[in-house]
Amino acid sequence: MPRPGRNTYSEQKPPYSYISLTAMAIQSCPEKMLPLSDIYKFIMERFPYYRDNTQRWQNSLRHNLSFNDCFIKIPRRPEQPGKGSFWALHPSCGDMFENGSFLRRRKRFKVLTSSDHLAPNKQSDAAHYLQQQAKLRLSALAATGTHLPQMSTYNLGVSQSSTFKHPFAIENIIAREYKVPGSLAFSTMQSMSAGYPLHNQLTTAWPHMYSSSVIDTAAPISMASGDYGAYGMPIKSLCHGGQSLPAIPVPIKPTPTSMPAFSALPPHIPRAARRGPGSR
DNA sequence: GCCTGTTTAGTATGTT
DNA sequence: AACATACTAAACAGGC
Questions:
Q1: Residue A147 CA from chain centroid, whole number
Q2: Which of A209, A223, A232, A265 is the most buried (most CB within 10 A)?
Q3: Which residue range or ranges hold the Fork-head domain (predicted)?
Q4: What is the pLDDT of residues A175-233, one digit of tens each?
């Protein structure tokens, strides 16, 4: 594969799955949620490859949004006119890309249903939580006088009040020298972990997701208001801060070590329930 | 009619 | 080889 520029991938297909690309787009904006059209825009601006055959990849992308539990749909509020809903990442999907590959996840993120003996269903809890978080982020940034870029200009993480760099933050992914996917992933994860102290077993995949900087910067926005998340636990722990953060990505064949964490899982999101027996 | 969103199905490819 | 995941295509429905 040829080497693209620092921030773009020329005409070559980027070594990222649609899930990665979508997550990048979502993470690139301060609200951590984007409408479909803005996700399209982000990908097309960043990756010239996707300026062609838009019908094809956009269909795939929509399929991914609907099919994968790691994406949750957030309905627009009356004061947010526009077409379509917002899409956000599930609060607990941070370590999907366990082995550092942005092309293929090791585990599929799956929100468990009530049939999995979890807490009773509470409709759109995650969506509700994320919408609240987006509001809090906006108000916090506004209060500190932080410049908020317009949705379409895509904040690349630099102006965020947090030093936290999400794994899908564009500067964590694009602004790295391109190598073949395998080695890219490895070197990427090595450099990622360099600046972020490890906390627990969850740091294996996304060390920076669980670094102290996450707790110290992201959490106060919500904790200051005394908020509790929609999952009935303090938002702090939902925001990858607590040691008890549940490992949501569910191996198809659950391992003994991963099972105990299920008791702490948030309630399911309705989408999971509509999967027919033929789904994969 | 177009866009968005959901679902099903088939194929390709990586992992175990 | 079997399985899991990703990609693609297509059909369909609902909203504007």
A1: 23
A2: A209
A3: 13-107
A4: 544 443 333 333 333 333 333 333 333 333 333 333 333 333 333 333 333 333 333 33
- Which nucleotide has the least CA–C1' distance to A13? C7
pLDDT value, residue A167: 57
What's the CA–C1' distance between A19 and B8, in Å? 20
Let me know: does A97 contact A89? Beta carbons within 8 Å: no
Q: A119-171: per-residue pLDDT in tens? A: 444 445 666 767 777 777 766 666 655 544 444 444 433 333 444 455 566 55
Cα–Cα distance, A184 to A207 (Å, whole number): 16
Whole domain around residue A52: which residue ranges?
A: 18-99
Bases of chain B within 7 A of a CB of the protein: 3-11, 14-16
More confident residue, A254 or A63: A63
**Res. A57 pLDDT band, cuts 50 70 90:** very high
With distances taken from each CA to the C1' atom of nucleotide B4, the closest residue turns out to be A84
Residue A183 lies in a domain: no
- Chain CA centroid to CA A272, Å: 18
Q: Is the CB of A180 less than 7 A from some atom of nucleic acid strand C?
A: no
**Structural domain contains residue A266:** no
Cβ pair A227, A219 in contact under 8 A: no
Strand C and chain A: which residues 96-125 have CB closer than 7 Å?
103-108
Which residues in 12-71 of chain A line strand C, with CB less than 7 A from it?
16-19, 53, 56-57, 59-60, 62-64, 68
Residue A67 lies in a domain: yes
Å: A148 CA to B1 C1': 36
Cα(A185)–Cα(A84) distance, integer angstroms: 33
Residue A158 lies in a domain: no
Q: What nucleotide is nearest A86 when CA is compared to C1'?
A: B4
What's the N-to-C CA distance of chain A in angstroms? 31
